[in-house]
Write a structure and sequence with these properties.
Length: 337
């Protein structure tokens, strides 16, 4: 019987042939990756005092650029509102959207885009001024609530209040800074978004310690990058760069020890780093060192987390469910093999 097993070269040809948009070729030709990010969310995507973008979502794009272009700095960051982010992706204004965006069925099926993984597991929370002396979201009947338009938070808050027989008035604005400014100015009693976003936006208030996050988490918000759905090759690259960052943490590969780890006898480490005959980049149109470059540029997932949003940052977010699967969390990457 004739073998049905395809060679890596044959698989690569099939993937490349099925790519309608040719994003990889476009990115290489431009010498830059166009990455859609937020309008400024500390810890996830925000420019520092020198105008350089930093954050967990930003580091993912730097890793992707390093894997594809060999340069983690070869990224043009495009600041997008929640309302405009999907149009920017589907129209080709950006190559990848890495903007604290929740993976839902309608976004995955109706918008011509596809999500390539979860980079941060989150849930919607609510913040109120401490002087209101409110300790639970169940005390918010009749409240005025501020949030961003074009987000899952609008539906979530509606569902939650309906479920508990409460009413509310929504103030939905497009610009993130406008939303937190409206809350800070007293236009609403409640600010709501993903809990990580609440922690980040709280830092923008004049007196952050005068505000508290209520204990309730009212939704599931798996946040992650997305790409256009018409380019299978680019989808695979986007997905496996994220997986490589998670796998690297699991096997102790860091940006500091990566060269030394190439001498590891662990077959899993050898596969991730493309040692010897381990070439898992070819089917995606990349070379064998794609994952090595990604990790070298920004570190593994744990390094990215700790640097941007972890306990030693202003956000002070514990790993929690974002810890590795073998440490009690949800972070579980399919194996590179």
């Amino acid at each position: 019987m004739k073998s049905k097993i395809l060679s890596l070269a044959a698989v690569a040809a099939l993937v490349a042939g099925g790519a309608a948009a040719g994003t990889l070729d476009d990115v290489k030709a431009a010498g830059k990756l166009k990455c859609g990010v937020s309008q400024g969310l500390p810890g996830f995507s925000t420019p520092d005092d020198n105008g350089r973008w930093t954050g967990l979502d930003v580091d993912y794009c730097r890793a992707l650029a390093a894997a594809v272009l060999g340069d983690g700095e070869a990224v043009d960051f495009v600041s997008l509102s929640a309302k405009d982010r999907f149009t920017a992706l589907s129209s080709g204004e950006i190559d990848v959207l890495s903007r604290n965006t929740t993976w839902t069925i309608t976004r995955d099926t109706d918008l011509g885009i596809t999500f390539t993984g979860v980079s941060y597991y989150d849930g919607q929370g609510m913040m109120v001024p401490k002087n209101l002396e409110i300790t639970s979201a169940l005390e918010l009947d009749g409240a005025t609530i501020c949030t961003n338009t074009g987000t899952t938070t609008e539906l979530n808050i509606t569902d939650y209040f309906k479920q508990h027989g409460m009413t509310f008035e929504l103030v939905a604005l497009e610009n993130s800074d406008e939303v937190i400014a409206a809350y800070g100015a007293g236009r609403c009693e409640v600010f709501t978004t993903d809990r990580s976003g609440v922690a980040a936006e709280r830092l923008k208030l004049a007196n952050p310690d005068d505000h508290m996050v209520l204990p309730e988490t009212i939704s599931k918000e798996p946040l992650g990058p997305s790409v256009r759905a018409d380019d299978k090759q680019w989808e695979l690259i986007s997905r496996w760069v994220l997986n490589a960052l998670i796998e690297a943490e699991e096997y102790g590969i860091t940006s500091e020890n990566i060269e030394d780890m190439k001498a590891s006898a662990n077959p899993s480490v050898q596969r991730i780093l493309g040692v010897g005959d381990n070439d898992y980049g070819a089917p995606m149109g990349l070379d064998s060192q794609w994952a090595t470059r990604a990790v070298a540029a920004v570190g593994n997932y744990g390094q990215i987390y700790d640097r941007n949003v972890g306990p030693d940052t202003p956000l002070k977010l514990d790993r929690g469910v974002n810890n590795l699967w073998n440490k009690g969390g949800f972070m579980y990457a399919p194996p590179i093999r």
